[in-house]
Amino acid sequence: MSDVKKVVLAYSGGLDTSIIAKWLQEEYNCEVVTFTADIGQGEEIEPARAKAQAMGIKEIYIEDLREEFARDFVFPMMRANAIYEGEYRLGTSIARPLISKRLVEIAQETGADAISHGATGKGNDQVRFEMNAYALMPDVKVIAPWREWDLMSREKLMAYAEEHNISIEKKKGKKSPYSMDANLLHISYEGGIIEDPANEPEEDMWLWTVAPEAAPDAPTYLDITFEKGDIVAINGDAMSPATVMEFLNKVGGENGIGRDDIVENRFVGMKARGCYETPAGTIMLKAHRAMESLTLDRNAAHLKDELMPKYAEMIYNGFWFAPEREMLQAMIDKSQENVSGNVRVKLYKGNVVVVGRTSENSLFDEAIATFEEDGGAYNHKDAEGFIKLNSLRLRTAAKKRGK
């Protein structure tokens, strides 16, 4: 431990990371630098400064990273239509590479020897933080207190806080029994009664969305404008990536959009049940697929769909900065060159319904697709040869079997 002189801590300002900050000072006898990021969690982060100062910490980084998060991480992922195991929209997973990137950059700026985080030894986040950090700074030392200390219960943590005069906020009302993580893309819930996959979540658990049955009886329509696979305007109003997500979270939440209840396979090997609210991500994904349906070549779209589960798995497992993810991203971005136009969606009681799409790059040809007279645009007789060639192997095999 004596070789660590300075460590950069991913610091939320909450009880756990405040304890970690003090523990690092005590156990490693080192200088601590705190880094607190605003990635759209919806909580005031400036109070973290006073808490860090109270522990004698002099180098305190508090940064608004919402636009970088949306532009450089969420939007590229949305171009891929990425979903893990068919349901999870990767809200926590995609935030970790940005935090790891800034931890490493701050370590380099301040001459720190190590970085530290508050992820537990059972979860995916420890893998994501560290894999992404090592990809950017191969020799960085990582301190993961949950894998080192013996403060393995809430009682021990509280006792440590009291012993070291760490402020414990006393909030009025009922304390949430859930472990939660929030950013521009989602809010997640784990623990409490939902640890048992058989239990239905309590209605008061959900913070961002109304229950679909309690949503307005009148639908909400949105006109969403894409340029090269990215949303650039809604209802004719130009918006930055972060503003797009903030707006869609609000209107989506009001219409009960984006609730998910999932049992997922963690990278570390266990199954875990989590509940998620992803209003913006749900709308973005539906609208993006609609835009691609009009503008993307069939085989290119199918290839994207084949590769998407692997791409999503890379993000989930912490390989954002791996060469294979970057290689796939280059292919995905190339596919988006003509994914521009407008998609009209209807939000109604938990549902996102695509009701229209237009594009100057549309590959839809009404003259060919129509069920009415097509003026010779499509020769029906061509289908006979097409069918016979494609069935040749089937007919040959059937004859060999004596049918």
Write down how many β-strands occur, each being a DSSP E stretch of 2 or more residues: 14
CATH topology call of the largest domain: Rossmann fold
Largest sheet: 5 strands, parallel
CATH class call of the largest domain = Alpha Beta
Global Rg: 25 Å
CATH architecture of the largest domain: 3-Layer(aba) Sandwich
Q: How confident is the prediction overall: mean pLDDT? A: 94
> What level of helicity do the residues show?
25-40%
CATH superfamily of the largest domain: HUPs
* Coarse shape: elongated
- Strands ordered across the widest β-sheet: 3-2-1-4-5
Structural class: alpha/beta
Structure description:
- With 403 residues, this protein is of the alpha/beta class.
- The chain has three domains: 6-77 and 91-163, Rossmann fold (3-Layer(aba) Sandwich); 179-296 and 338-358, Argininosuccinate synthetase, chain A, domain 2, CATH 3.90.1260.10; 367-400, no CATH class.
- The protein is 39% helix and 19% strand.
- A five-stranded parallel β-sheet has the order 3-2-1-4-5, with helices on both faces. Strands 10-9-8-13-14 form a five-stranded antiparallel β-sheet. A four-stranded antiparallel β-sheet has the order 6-7-12-11, with no helix packed on it.
- It is an enzyme of class 6 (ligase).
Helix and strand topology:
Layout: E1 6-10, H1 15-28, E2 31-38, H2 47-54, E3 60-64, H3 66-79, H4 96-110, E4 114-116, H5 125-136, E5 141-143, H6 154-163, E6 179-182, E7 187-190, E8 220-227, E9 230-234, E10 237-238, H7 241-254, E11 259-265, E12 271-277, H8 279-295, H9 298-317, H10 323-335, E13 341-348, E14 351-358, H11 366-369, H12 382-390, H13 392-400
Parallel strand pairs: 1-2, 1-4, 2-3, 4-5
Antiparallel strand pairs: 6-7, 7-12, 8-9, 8-13, 9-10, 11-12, 13-14
Helix pairs in contact: 3-7, 4-5, 7-8, 9-10
